[in-house]
Amino acid sequence: MPRLQKNDNFIDKTFTVLADIILKVLPTSKEEKKAFYYYRDGMSAQSEGEYAEALECYYEALLLEEDPYDRSYILYNIGLIYSSNGEHIKALEYYHQALELNSKLPQALNNIAVIYHYQGIKAANLKKANISKSMFEKAAQYWEQAIYLAPNNYIEAQNWLKTTGRIDNTNK
After folding, report:
1. What is d(CA 171, CA 162) in angstroms, rounded to the nearest whole number?
2. DSSP 3-38
3. Could you tell me the pLDDT band of residue 32, with boundaries at 50, 70 and 90?
4. Where are the TPR repeats (predicted)?
């Protein structure tokens, strides 16, 4: 099951060795261990741009993983792949599933906002003002949630919220 990594670097190799040692020591079920191996292999494939392989690994991990917190990260990573491939509707579905399991996942909130912001720009370029405004408002809502959870992150989003008048500087 372990994936052969083409571009192994010291940090990746170290992480893999440590993760394997920890898994052998921790009292986890066979399924949980297998789920982790699939997740780790998915992350490795994803980092190499092997998205189809990464998705296969993540879907296998989802079949085995029972912990909602861990499942949220698997779903989030699946959303990342679909977003990278321009499949924004699918990405939104997976980000929302991740948030259902883990509402404190600011990176999912941020990525949802980025998709809505992108859709807002597309609509504005097509002179669809109502759709553009709606998408920008959705983006603002998700960025506000992400910033609430991670106030030191998403500086560009914070600046956008301020420059567009969507955030009150006196409350921050």
Report:
1. 12
2. PPPTT--HHHHHHHHHHHHHHHHS---HHHHHHHHH
3. confident
4. 35-68, 35-68, 72-105, 72-105, 120-153
